Amino acid sequence: MKLDPSILRSLSLDSRSTTVSSHGSSGFNATAKISTTLPNNTRKHFFLKTSPSKAAETMFRGEHASLNAIHSVVPSLCPASLATGVGEDGNAFLVTDFLDMSTRTDSPKQQQQQPGKQHSGMSLAAKLAKLHTTPAPIPDGYDKPMFGFPVTTCCGDTPQPNDYKASWATFYAENRLLAILANCERNHGQDAELRALVTQIVEMVVPRLLGDEHLNHGNGITPVVIHGDLWSGNKGKGVIGGGEGGAVEDVVFDPSAVYGHNEYELGIMNMFGGFGKGFWDEYHRICPRTPPVEEYEERVRLYEL
Fold it and tell me: If we measure between CA atoms, which residue out of 75, 78, 73 comes closest to residue 130?
């Protein structure tokens, strides 16, 4: 394989000491491992995605921002994204810290007992709860955290609009439910029954369960970083950076982030499973259910749409 010069420049790498080889697989993209020797003679590895798809530039830009939004809050939860753009060959690219998922896994307690391995000591539940209890940053041009995200993200290859809203109910209705409906109608034509059902949910169910005057006793909710596509296939255990002697951590990848209600994350997690009772007990000890607690399950079902 040959590494595009644009990628070398974006990482400030010397082509004479850098190699690239196919690594892993992806449903949408070509994936590879970049290995280089730094000026201090240490080896460093990166993970590379490339795609000739016209939609890939938007997809990678969203993933780049999503990874860094998560990494900035819980660095041990996902790799940092280092570069994204379009190469001289016309292919879009994304480069992140390498995530080595081939190493032997130890429990957090075992990792802490091993000298030289700087483990976070946090489980996946604790990391996700920390992510979901840390207020999202205030966007440029605003004076408070907002619901949305700085860039468009993608669910699969479907773009998700993330323009900022002050109200979570408005964001979920307009930027998710109605946006998905509009995309379906563009691709498959109008369906009067589907439109009527979505309209009913937007006008009746969303205000009842998520309305600003209702959720959290009318005190509002604080936007937090949401992974956005967290199911069992997008979590695992690995060493971020891929360095020898690194600690094996619970990690997530392939995010489609948004600043939103933490329980929005739980919709897809609940729908696809893979998170047991112990996980949820630990998560909710740190990140309690939003009042009204008796409507928690209804909200999670709504977020599965």
Answer: 73
